[in-house]
Design goal:
heterodimer; A: mainly alpha; two-stranded antiparallel sheet; 2% strand; B: mainly alpha; 3% strand; globular
Chain lengths: 439, 257
């Protein structure tokens, strides 16, 4: 956080001016397209007005006083930012987006949302703390990732909704309408060539405009706070809050890879092969989106933009204060059971007892958690097989079903553990630090 | 006779390109069959299968970024020395002094972009259900390629030898300490001991194998450099070949079956 506020505003104003002008031009082009090609004059007029408003916003920024988010709202957002609101909020957003997908996929709704998110982004950039995090060179790609994922999710959903509507009327998906074959030369090779040239140009502009990340020379004695893994592993680092490293860093990543590879062998649904659809493969769609968008991408966003010094959560407009103190008082399940529940101390092997006795006492101490895990991983799958996964079990057979059920349970264990932490400050369900075995 | 025609009529030209320019239907077919680079493609393809709004072109973009990374990477290897004395200074010089130092920005940003595009490619393949039979195996190859892309980026992260590099790798590789049985702070680590002597210590565990030392240092830089420049790219190149070949063999480019 170097330099004064005036320096910051002076530096960012021309950039924001150009940014809003680009947005304005984008809307002007859209207005022209709507008027000229789609003959929708009303909509065109609306986007022309938006375009002019953006010019006004741009000129304010150029003049050295860019619009920002009002202080009260910023303070409220910072105050509200926390693991619970973030996780529950993003999940709720995804659920709402899923349920309201028919409304969201209308082009004008999508365009409005794009405008809204870009304008909010611009307004937030006028805040020094926000800008410091977002423009950190290593974080720039994640900003890109967020917008790209938003766009492609919207596009895929739009296509899926259209196909699902067609399926309801007994029509084939749009992808099988045009079965005409074309020659690869010129139709595909030219597309490839254009893509390559465009991408090269894009990379060159990016590389010249923005220097690649390079910090001070490495020093083994100066530990940065926070110390972060590369951004694509920040979801795993976030899991370290809830799990020990052997789970978050070794077992769960391995299960992610194994689980991804297993998808084609677990998904027995023959529908939806080669075209966008949601209705025809709801289960696999929802599970994948939960895993990818919620548990992978939003955790990366959390780790990149909201996790500051000491791995505390900071609001988007909050200063990353290394002295922010948050009380951490997490308790193991065995503590809850023996000390708080039974009103006695943790079972402990008598001094000088053999290895067998010691292990016996450890198992006794952790028996509540072990029983709970056994219920979850061993009893639950067969229970699900005879209840709401009855159809799945019949079609998949024992081995495939058990693999699917266990992978699913491991995946769902993460949000479950988060909730347990928030509600009961639960640290470990099974805590055997003697053997580094905490769950 | 124009110069262009003279060149195209010459024996040298004809020895390279065996057929006339692909300007009519016959030669457009022939060119796909006789050119080494083009023969990755089929001769004809469903128009719908190459619609940009359907494929997003993300697999192709990822492959192109891999080529960009290879070319810029080889050029950077001429300049960069993977030792603690020189690594950081060489990167600084690439930024401030060297002509074509922009190659390093291309390499770095291209790497970030490649991670993103490979995810988007997987996302598209999932959303169109293109992993379903007969493409199951190619999906598996794709997942391995995705993992290798992340490892390529991870190993490359260390090479600039700045604060970002060593601490990101320290945080990332600390997890290996906790590998069950094989990490010195992992569950079951005590199982591998002979007459009370631990086989798994901080000088023999999974993290040590990754770093070549007890902490991120000179040995790690060398190890990551070789992984980044030789071992992983070779594996990726082989798997890419299989990936593309299987696209052709498993029913061609995605589309409704």
């Amino acid at each position: 956080m170097h330099g004064s506020y005036t320096d910051f505003i002076e530096g960012i104003s021309p950039f924001l001016g150009g940014y809003y002008l680009a947005l304005s031009a984008m809307n002007a082009v859209m207005a022209f397209y709507l008027w000229h090609y789609k003959h929708k004059t009303g909509q065109a007029v609306f986007w022309v007005v938006v375009s002019f408003l953006l010019v006004a916003v741009a000129s304010a920024a150029m003049g050295g006083s860019p619009l920002g988010i009002p202080e009260d709202i910023r303070k409220f957002i910072d105050w509200a930012t926390g693991p619970v609101i973030y996780s529950v909020g993003t999940t709720a957003l995804l659920v709402i987006a899923y349920l309201a997908r028919r409304w969201l996929v209308q082009p004008m709704v999508g365009w409005s949302l794009l405008n809204l998110s870009l304008v909010v982004m611009g307004l937030s950039m006028a805040n020094m703390n926000f800008a410091a995090i977002v423009t950190k060179p290593d974080n720039v790609p994640i900003v890109g990732l967020v917008f790209l994922l938003g766009f492609f999710t919207w596009l895929a959903t739009a296509k899926a909704v259209e196909n699902d509507d067609r399926a309801r009327e007994g029509l084939p998906p749009t992808e099988s309408l045009d079965n005409e074959k074309v020659l690869v030369w010129p139709d595909l090779v030219y597309t490839e060539l254009i893509c390559m040239i465009a991408l090269t140009a894009f990379l060159l502009v990016w590389g010249i405009a923005l220097q690649a990340p390079l910090e001070e020379p490495a020093s083994a004695v100066k530990t940065p706070n926070p110390s972060k893994a590369p951004w694509y592993f920040l979801g795993l680092q976030e899991m370290l809050v809830y799990y020990d490293p052997w789970m978050a860093g070794v077992l769960l990543p391995s299960l992610i890879i194994v689980g991804l590879m297993a998808i084609p062998f677990l998904d027995f649904n023959k529908q939806g092969n080669g075209y966008y659809t949601i209705e025809q493969r709801k289960f696999s769609y929802i599970v994948f989106q939960l895993g990818f968008l919620e548990l992978w991408v939003t955790l990366i966003i959390l780790g990149t933009f909201f996790r500051g010094p000491n791995w505390n959560i900071f609001g988007p407009f909050e200063y990353w204060d290394a002295h922010k103190v948050l009380a951490l008082n997490n308790v193991d399940l065995s503590q809850y059971f023996w000390v708080d529940g039974m009103g006695r101390g943790l079972p402990k092997a008598p001094a000088g007892s053999g290895l067998g006795t010691q292990i016996g006492y450890i198992l006794l101490r952790e028996s509540p958690g072990i029983v709970l895990l056994a219920l979850y991983f061993i009893v639950l799958p067969p229970l699900m097989a005879v209840t709401f996964f009855r159809g799945f079990f019949a079609k998949m057979g024992f081995v495939r079903y058990m693999l699917m059920a266990n992978l699913l349970l491991f995946m769902v264990a993460l949000p479950l553990k988060m909730v347990l932490r928030w509600v009961w400050n639960l640290k470990y369900i099974v805590a055997i630090p003697e053997y580094f075995l905490n769950f | 006779m124009s110069i262009g025609e003279m060149i195209r009529e010459s024996q040298v030209w004809k020895s390279i390109f065996r057929h006339p320019m692909p300007q009519d239907r016959r030669n457009r077919i022939v060119v796909m069959l006789t050119n080494f680079f083009l023969h990755l493609h089929p001769v004809s393809i469903k128009k719908q299968g190459i619609a940009l709004s359907y494929t997003w072109c993300m697999g192709g973009v990822t492959f192109f970024l891999f080529l960009v990374e290879t070319v810029t990477g080889v050029l950077l290897m001429f300049y960069y020395r993977p030792t603690i004395e020189w690594a950081y200074n060489d990167i600084l010089a690439l930024r401030d002094v060297t002509s074509l130092g922009v190659l390093r920005e291309l390499h770095r940003w291209g790497a970030h972009a490649m991670v993103i595009t490979v995810w988007l490619h997987m996302y598209r393949v999932f959303l169109t259900g293109s992993y379903k039979p007969p493409r199951e195996f190619n999906w598996v190859v794709g997942v391995i390629l995705l993992l290798l892309t992340l490892l390529l980026s991870f190993t490359g992260y260390l090479l600039p030898w700045d604060q970002l590099a060593i601490w990101a790798i320290t945080v990332g590789s600390n997890m290996a300490r906790a590998t069950p049985i094989l990490g010195h702070e992992g569950p079951g680590q005590q199982l591998l001991n002979i007459q009370g002597i631990d086989m798994i210590t901080n000088a023999s565990d999974a993290r040590f194998a990754l770093l070549g030392a007890r902490f991120v240092g000179e040995e790690t830089l060398n190890r990551f450099y070789i992984l980044h420049c030789i071992a992983i790219p070779l594996a990726v190149a082989l798997l890419l070949a299989i990936h593309f070949w299987r696209v052709r063999k498993d029913g061609g480019i995605s589309g409704p079956l």
